[in-house]
Amino acid sequence: MKPFGKPAAVALAALLTLTACGGGGEATPAAQGPQPLRMTIWTSNEAHLKLFNEIAAEYRKTRPDIGEIKFDPIPFENYTTTLTTQIAGGNAPDLAWILESSAPDFVSSGALAPLDDTLSTAQGYEFGDLTPSAVKLWQNGGKLYAYPFSTSPFGVFVNTDLLKKAGQKTPAEMIEDGTWTWEKVAAQNAAVASKTGKAGMVVRDFDYKGWDNLASVWGGWGARAWSEDGRTCGFDSPEMVEAMTFLHRSIFTDKAFPGPGTTADFFAGDSAMTITQISRASLLQDAKFGWDLVPLPAGPRGEYSVIGQAGLGVLKKSPNAAAATDFLAFFTNPANSAKLAAYFPPPRASQLTADTMAKSNPLLKPGQLQKVVISGIEKGVVKPNHTGQAELSQTVRAALDPLWQPGADVKAVLAGVCAKIQPMLGA
């Protein structure tokens, strides 16, 4: 497998240079007449887009000065690369979703407009309802630069029919008897692969490229990509070596995880389990198999949770920045936040209850939402993020490539990762 080239890192570096030095000029005044707005997103899910367009249509009823509001999907894998290229090339959107991994760069770069003044004064917005833990990643110098529209723990969707076919216990039974652990779950998935010909556990959006999604596995060992202050590499730690040794064995020896080059879509019934977030639940609307949603299995360090976050920001250099900020306030007000909660766990304390979320998540039971989402947010650790994440991410991916083959020396590969990225961590 080949690592990413340099486009993401180069584009983001250009973004930082432009915003820090004021290059590219200030935003030009908007032209006369209704002004269109464009918001980049990484979902192309029809249910998501339908909801977004309904909210936009409602907003435009009272804003004749706003033209079309376009939601512009960019493929997830290349999202930040494409977005930063657009910004550096003078084709920035008015609003953009931002991954948690890119938050430090975007928030500190000056690329985003501050939101506090608009959100705190918008009628009925209830700015104080936003939880401090949810907004922390998106603040700099006491100002909020992106709204955390989704704070979503990773959970495990399980095909209970496949488990029964392979003669395995259900997750509910294992949780009840205290055996919902990584070692036991790996054995289950190996049995499914052996007895049914279907895949076992799939870490969605990993595909031997998106390595940061493996935090949903190595967190069970207490491992981290780098120290909390971001200055020391953690890939060569004993905890990470143990976690990755388990993962390597599960892939290449036990066949509990599909190997490189194998595609298995849980939502099409092709695998026993998948690690992902509740925004994917809508894909089970017409599922023809029994399923459940449960927390991540416990690791040697016990129970844990890993959170993915996504922010929504306004590009400062948009000629429509003021209108975009006003739309953001409408898009994320209490009423619309409750609608978005059908797919994206909200940052509002008043809406973070299982009963409240169940009203907008009819496919999920209150108990599932409590155990996976509410409890997960309370104890969760955010996925790896760091300044210079674009270059760090592609460096880690390239350095991990030798791990994804039988017979790899796990400890040596992980030491090699640290040799590559330690100079980039600023220690």
Automatic annotation (TrEMBL):
For this protein, the record's InterPro entries field holds: Bact_solute-bd_prot1, SBP
Keyword flag Signal: yes
Q: Name the domain of life.
A: Bacteria
Pfam families according to UniProt: SBP_bac_1
Keywords attached to this Swiss-Prot or TrEMBL record, sorted alphabetically, are: Cell membrane, Lipoprotein, Membrane, Palmitate, Signal
Q: Name the PROSITE patterns for this protein.
A: PROKAR_LIPOPROTEIN (PS51257)
The record's annotation in Gene3D superfamilies points to: Periplasmic binding protein-like II
Q: Which SUPFAM superfamilies match?
A: Periplasmic binding protein-like II
Signal sequence bounds: 1-22
For this entry, the protein name equals Sugar ABC transporter substrate-binding protein
Look up and give the organism this protein is from.
Answer: Streptosporangium oxazolinicum
